[in-house]
């Protein structure tokens, strides 16, 4: 990482102390918003380390899974941890039997004691707040939300507890992938017209107390969702309020709507 001190300041940690993996993960997950504003505007997403730091750290923007988790990976490697990236297929919201592309990035992290962890700060609304032990290990509660990993043949599946039952978030083979495969998945996600990250708009933010906020227009009208572990509120604000919502709720100022209704 080029400027580790600047990254720590960005996520609200002191540069005078060496952060632990759990502290770094939670600080990142609750400080840097999830957003696809560049693909939405037709701007290619670069995964070069210097571009990730410029955008997410110095410019105080957000990003989606490839950006978020590669930035986290560089910070963890700066601390001397071993990080192995893996590609996952998102299942949340998929029709039964549908096979989606490997368009999500997840990390396996080995700490100094040899323990392996499942780390992911880039799943949008509902990402892990804290790393969990890698592989099946029971349920893990995080600020009111519960997660677990189950085996499904050769794959591992991350699930979350919703209304009393477990639902799939994503599935992946526990095999590290080379960076060139991540670049290919990133290109498809950020440039293919069939990708929701190109055709639609999304921004999400997590708070340390477990509250979640998001906006998206993936189902048509703009939807604002505010969740806690015990409650969810959904509204459909006017589309012209998008710049205001981005600035006030997601700390993403400086955007405006063009005549075509897309961000500029």
| CATH architecture title | 2-Layer Sandwich
- Annotated CATH topology: Arylamine N-acetyltransferase fold
Strand content: 25-35%
Largest β-sheet summary? 8 strands, antiparallel
CATH class descriptor: Alpha Beta
SSE order: HHEHHHEEEEEEEEHHEEEEH
Write out the strand line-up for the largest beta sheet, numbering strands in chain order. 5-4-3-2-9-8-7-6
Detail the topology: elements first, then pairings:
Layout: H1 4-10, H2 21-29, E1 34-35, H3 37-40, H4 49-58, H5 65-78, E2 82-90, E3 102-110, E4 116-119, E5 132-133, E6 140-142, E7 145-152, E8 155-162, E9 165-172, H6 179-191, H7 196-199, E10 202-206, E11 212-216, E12 223-228, E13 231-235, H8 242-250
Antiparallel strand pairs: 1-10, 2-3, 2-9, 3-4, 4-5, 6-7, 7-8, 8-9, 10-11, 11-12, 12-13
Helix pairs in contact: 4-5
Index terms:
5-stranded antiparallel beta sheet; 27% helix; 13 strands; 8-stranded antiparallel beta sheet; 8 helices; 264 residues; Arylamine N-acetyltransferase fold; alpha+beta; globular
Question: How would you summarize this macromolecular structure in one to three sentences?
Answer:
This protein is of the alpha+beta class and 264 residues long.
């Amino acid at each position: 990482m080029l400027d580790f001190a600047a990254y720590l300041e960005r996520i609200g940690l002191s540069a005078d102390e060496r952060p632990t993996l759990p502290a770094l993960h939670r600080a990142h997950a609750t400080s840097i918003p999830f957003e696809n504003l560049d693909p939405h505007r037709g701007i290619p997403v670069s995964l070069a380390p210097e571009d990730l730091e410029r955008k997410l750290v110095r410019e105080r923007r957000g990003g989606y899974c490839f950006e978020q988790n590669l930035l986290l990976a560089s910070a963890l490697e700066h601390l001397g941890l071993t990080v192995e990236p893996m590609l996952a297929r998102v299942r949340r919201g998929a029709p039964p039997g549908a096979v989606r592309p490997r368009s999500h990035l997840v990390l396996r992290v080995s700490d100094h004691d040899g323990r392996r962890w499942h780390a992911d700060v880039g799943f949008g609304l509902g990402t892990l707040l804290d790393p969990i032990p890698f592989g099946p290990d029971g349920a893990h509660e995080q600020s009111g939300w519960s997660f677990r990993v189950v085996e499904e043949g050769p794959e591992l599946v991350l699930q979350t507890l919703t209304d009393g039952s477990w639902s799939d978030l994503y599935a992946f083979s526990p095999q590290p992938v080379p960076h060139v495969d991540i670049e290919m998945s990133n290109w498809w996600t950020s440039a293919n017209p069939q990708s929701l990250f190109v055709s639609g708009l999304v921004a999400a933010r997590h708070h340390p107390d477990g509250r979640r906020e998001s906006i998206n227009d993936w189902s048509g009208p703009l939807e604002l969702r505010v969740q806690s572990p015990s409650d969810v509120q959904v509204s459909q604000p006017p589309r012209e309020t998008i710049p205001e919502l981005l600035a006030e709720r997601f700390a993403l100022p400086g955007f405006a709507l063009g005549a075509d209704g897309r961000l500029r």
